[in-house]
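ok, trying the design again with the full structure, not the truncated one.
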């Protein structure tokens, strides 16, 4: 082999090495950028999750406290607490202390709410109000006890 061929092959090899090095470096930068974006996205999602969790905890505390102070009725409090407990800790529905919230919800889920409630005629609305009063009399103390227990739980530091 002549010297020119050898030098040409060496030059081609060096150019190939430089080209591949540039390609590898660009891929490395792309991957690092992608990983940084994923970390930022995870941090944003975690912040949103924490914000929602804090909102749920605060809402549960407010509802439980309002129930204790009789600022809200047991039926309304039960329905709202039951909905929020799913976001706080869904396993609480299985604990005996908190099943009363589910029971009240099931007993009242046939009662219209919001716009449907407003659209009811006076007679039908009064019938539902009597149903609510009966449920509150039957389960009011249990709901208040569960709310009190929930306040104790919510005020404990969570790991």
């Amino acid at each position: 082999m002549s010297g020119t061929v050898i030098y040409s092959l060496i030059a081609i090899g060096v150019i190939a090495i430089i080209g591949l090095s540039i390609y590898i470096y660009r891929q490395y930068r792309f991957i690092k950028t992608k990983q940084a974006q994923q970390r930022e996205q995870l941090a944003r999602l975690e912040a949103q999750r924490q914000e929602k969790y804090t909102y749920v905890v605060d809402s549960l505390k407010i509802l439980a406290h309002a129930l204790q102070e009789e600022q809200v009725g047991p039926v309304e409090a039960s329905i709202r607490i039951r909905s929020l407990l799913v976001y706080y800790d869904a396993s609480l529905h299985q604990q005996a202390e908190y099943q009363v919230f589910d029971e009240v919800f099931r007993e009242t889920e046939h009662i219209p709410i919001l716009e449907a409630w407003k659209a009811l005629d006076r007679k039908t609305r009064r019938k539902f109000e009597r149903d609510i009063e009966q449920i509150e009399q039957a389960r009011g103390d249990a709901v208040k006890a569960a709310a009190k227990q929930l306040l104790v739980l919510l005020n404990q530091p969570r790991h």
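Keeping the full-length input from now on. Residues 46-154 form one domain.
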